Amino acid sequence: MSIILVSVEYRSMGMDGALRLDSLKEAAATVDAAALDEARFGFARAHPQRSARRVLFCTQALALAALITAFVFAARSAPTLTFATLHITALVIFAAAIFVRLIAAASLTPLLSRLADQSDVPVYTILCPLYREANVAPDLVAALGRIDYPPDALDIKLIVEGDDVDTIAAAVAVSGPAHIEVVIVPACAPRTKPKALNAGLARARGEFVVVYDAEDRPHPQQLRAALAAFEDGGPSLACVQAPLSIDNADASWISRQFAAEYAIQFREVLPLLAHLNLPLPLGGTSNHFRTEILRQAGGWDPHNVREKVRAFIA
Predict the structure, then answer these.
(1) How far apart are CA 170 and CA 37, in angstroms?
(2) Mean pLDDT confidence for 52-80
């Protein structure tokens, strides 16, 4: 971290907070200026047409303006026909979505995931971005500690914003094992999860990398199941999405609908898309990558807060 950034933190949190942060930094790794710049702007420089840093291109703005103009003209000229057409179009789209889910459910063949042998496993990096989540850091690390994978082959990164002193303190307090590293990302725009993931990816030592959120409690055998999927899929398989499930489905009607939506998405729709070799939307967590391929793709777009919609070909 540069002197300028440190001085900003001193003014914003006071001398006591700054002294506390300095003491915590001694037990953590701070992203340097060059790595921070790459995490913030590397994707946009490498893929300007795909980055959300620029919201609209000229062609997109013109197309949007033409669409709005056409809608206004149609609504004024034939309002009944226009809104009837919109209504029918919405029904068709909704019915098509239901039809796809029915096909996915009908073609679903439940399979038990094979587990990779632990005799000679590669290093696996786990990226865990945390922001104002000091209260759940101990539970997260405890869950990661139950993962059925050799500890000396794990590379866990707890990635924390530089001005989030409480979460830094909580992360440092639970980072005793040698395979757990606290990574401090200097506080700067854009304040997004993808920026933090890029910072962690740059320090990843593993041949494979997985993303977990602070509230996640991954199945102890998930890494071995994902590794087996990579082995079976061959070098062309770049990404594996683990199914997500809700652990409080019985709490309320809304939570049951939420759980059902997740079950349909991750256990029916995504397997169908993968079977058809179509682009598939990833979840924001429990997605596993070949590290080198992810780096070649540019990592994550830090200006896109919807990091979970990034699509890969299965």
Answers:
(1) 26
(2) 94
